[in-house]
Amino acid sequence: MNLISKEDLGILLEYEYGIKATLIDKSAWGFTSTAYYVRDGANRQYIAKVAMVSEEKLAKSQKDILLSTLLHGVVNTPNYLRNSQGEYLTVGKELLLKVADYIEGTAPFDMNTKILEQMAITLKKIHCFPLADVNYELRGYESVLQGIDVKGSETKLLHGDLTPSNVIVADNVIKGVIDMEDSLTGPVEYDLAVSAVFGWFRMKNIPFTKALDSVKNAYDGKVSQSLLNTFAVEHTRRYLNHVKNSKENYKDESNWQDDFNFAQKAFETISQSVS
Questions:
Q1: At the fourth CATH level, which superfamily is domain 113-273?
Q2: Which of 95, 131, 157, 208 has the most CB atoms at less than 10 Å from its CB?
Q3: 67 φ, ψ to 5°?
Q4: Neighbours of 248 (CB within 10 A)
């Protein structure tokens, strides 16, 4: 999605951040946001994320920056830059911009169990961060998935969306963790199930139960198998419903149909695997 031209982004980067870009290249995009790879004349590298302004997106971006900054010494999160007003976010009438130092690597679109295990270890580091040190009112997992009995589980800081899209990998090693926008609080099984489900989506010829076991074993902590199974099914159900309700966002109906068929089959497979 083209929210801003490269020329206008270059002007904004120089005016607000003092970055004289010699290269701006689209890196990733979605329905409401786009990320750009940026390099300047001194070969310094940045990532610039542009999104459509809304109250929800502004709140999520503020949360992302706050938690990424807090966790920077725990896991390698983005180092966000301040603009000319000393703010981390540059907000206009229609767009908002945040800029960070570039983390070398790519998203692991071809997943394997080695990366999945590292994701679990990364989650454990995040879960160990004291909630009392988070100066932000985080919502609970119930705001996303209701009706799940988590009696006896501890409430932890959760990444909320540690999927392959939100880790940066080089040579099968995780180099960075991005996008804390969906962070919340709840049981660790919520986070582990997210990584297992969406990691498995990008794995070939591996049973889901093996992906789930890889996450649980690598986490090496107290994990309820039944709760992990329940969250895995519910995350997949939620993804299926999301695809169902997003048809209007697809330019090509055949692409939507492919995604819907994939999501439906994944839900059936995971539900049967953990029953």
A1: Aminoglycoside phosphotransferase (APH), C-terminal lobe (3.90.1200.10)
A2: 157
A3: -70, -35
A4: 6
The alpha carbon dihedral of 236, 175, 185, 127 has a sign of: positive
Whether residue 239 contacts residue 215, with contact meaning beta carbons closer than 8 Å, is answered with: no
Task: Please count the CA atoms within 13 angstroms of the CA of 144 that sit on its side-chain side.
Answer: 24
State the pTM of this model.
0.95
**Domains in the chain: boundaries:** 6-101, 113-273
6-101 in CATH: which number?
A: 3.30.200.20
What is the full per-residue pLDDT of the chain (275 aa) written as tens digits? 678 999 999 999 999 999 999 999 999 887 788 999 999 999 999 999 999 999 999 999 999 999 999 999 899 999 999 999 999 999 998 999 999 999 999 999 889 999 999 999 999 999 999 999 998 999 999 999 999 999 999 999 999 999 999 999 999 999 999 999 999 999 999 999 999 999 999 999 999 999 999 999 999 989 999 999 999 999 999 999 999 999 998 889 999 999 999 999 999 999 999 98
